[in-house]
Amino acid sequence: MLVSKSKSKTCVGIRKKVVIFVMIITLTISNLVMSQVDHRTAAKKRYMKEKVRKMFYHAYNNYMAHAFPHDELKPITKTYTDSLSELGNLKLEHLPQNYKGSALTLVESLSSLVIIGNNTEFERAVLWLSENLSFDVDARINLFECNIRLLGGLVSAHILATDSTNRLAPEVYKNQLLILAEDLGQRFLHAFDTPTGLPYAWINLKYGVMEDETTETSTSGCGSLILEMGALSRLTGDSRYEAAALRALRKLWSMRSPLNLVGTTLDVVTGEWLEYSSGIGAGVDSFYEYLMKAHILFGGEEFWEMFHPAYLAVQKYFRHGPWYHDADMRTGRATYWQLTSLQAFWPGLQVLLGDVAAANSSHREFFSVWEKFGVLPERYLLDRGMMHPTEKYYPLRPELAESTFYLYQATKDPWYLEVGESMVNSLNRYTKVEGGFASIKDVATMTPEDHQHSFFLAETCKYLYLLYDDSFLVDQNYVFTTEGHPLPVKSAWQERLPEAYTATNWTSIMGINYETRRISAMSLQVCPSIALMSEGSAGHQVESVCHIPDLRTTHRCMTDDDCGIDSTSCRKRTCSMAGYCGLWLLVL
User: Fold this and answer.
1) Which residues are annotated as a binding site for Ca(2+)?
2) Is 399 a catalytic residue?
3) Is 371 a known active-site residue?
4) Span 206-225, pLDDT tens digits
5) Which residue segment(s) compose the domain that 410 sits in?
6) CA atoms within a 13 Å half-sphere pointing along the CA-CB vector of 237
7) Among the listed ranges 18-27, 261-270, 545-554, which one has the minimum average pLDDT value?
8) CB neighbour list of residue 381: distance below 8 Å, 6 or more residues apart
9) Are residues 230 and 357 in the same domain?
10) Do 559 and 483 have their domain in common?
11) How far is CA 540 from its chain centroid?
12) What is the spatial distance between Cα 308 and Cα 306, in angstroms, rounded to a whole number?
């Protein structure tokens, strides 16, 4: 049948109008759906924020009622424990006789009070500590634990008390927390008096290093001091604290194996490794974390030049799919196939690098274990698919909540809000008691333990709250210490820092226009490599942090193990039938 040209044009015109109309309707419906989704997400975040706030106050108020000014709360018996000398002290050796606490949980709660918005309680706590806290006590303490909890808590709270928000009036606050922090830092310096510069793990706050003190320490113990002690030096103008921590870090890095791996324990006098098996969990975890965060906080290339090869070594020798096992630092061969709850910080660190795909992959596996048991057991045997027979406790650890917060900040994927909700519900169901929140002694039976760790308030509640309300982060970039205490990225502290971390006038990232605002490290994706453009400067290519070169420069290979990770897509390269590494697509 023949159709006239006029009719044909008419039909085409009608079809165009119909298509346009359908597109308009589709877009309208899409916008309505998105608007409803955004509305539901906002409502969910408000609801969950309030739920986490109630968790924090249930823990905090019970501590203040039943344990303060002692160190930590025993929520089942509604009593207290003076636990500062017990932290890291698995054998409970050399416990003090007359030590009566240092208000540890209150110090740990200071920055959380600010983030939640309770400046009144923050001021009350600061004034009490100013008048009552003293470190001139005969107590043997773990340097690492005291550094991340007490020194970090005091330094961070001092900064929050003196920032531009005027939380505390100048006549009320006169640097009392900084004075306490400096007193504590001076006591720390005794630990570094060793032939290697590596600090003793244990010191007495009153008398320094005791006679016949053990010379064994962990990689975390001597490699995770630079943020707190560096910040103390920047605030006081006394370079000794940062210099001591940096000397120890440099010495530790010089002891790495040819594979760029470090061990777990070492001798501070001889500088010899005692435990060669290593991983990203207990004893090593925050060593990696502090290298990257020190690079962000203080700038300069030295920290990056240590971190980057260390990160690549972890990806090469520890990673197995989404999991990370332990390996011998000398050979790279797997030693223990296990997941530990402390490893759950790793996806959060990867987000800071921009290695979001790898972070998401590992995070989902950690969360799958959480869902399987209701909480995350301390140790899970990957090769057997079961909990460790003795280490099956859950002490209210924050690491999974921390990584969930970072991933949501990077992706804004509402699935992470659901993960947080699941965690909040589990904590309320299994760990909440009348007198606070109790650790789980046995995850298999959910048997409670009479202990509410200070980091529950410093980290677990804080990261869950920030997941649903990140208004604290709007006007300032922060680096969170391994204990969750925020330290602001200040230009005055930086030696030479990539402009990306401090820019205030960035208008274009990957060609997308944004309102003028600060770009935080967690939102700056470095992997895959992207062209970064800032106002008044030329774009420059950022090398992908997750790039692992092929074994041979010719890219020839025998097996997939000879191939690395692609420098732009961060995907694993494989060996083709022709014997070359590449990203090969399977065509069906």
Assistant:
1) 482
2) yes
3) no
4) 999 999 999 999 999 999 99
5) 41-497
6) 0
7) 18-27
8) 337, 338, 387, 388
9) yes
10) no
11) 28
12) 6
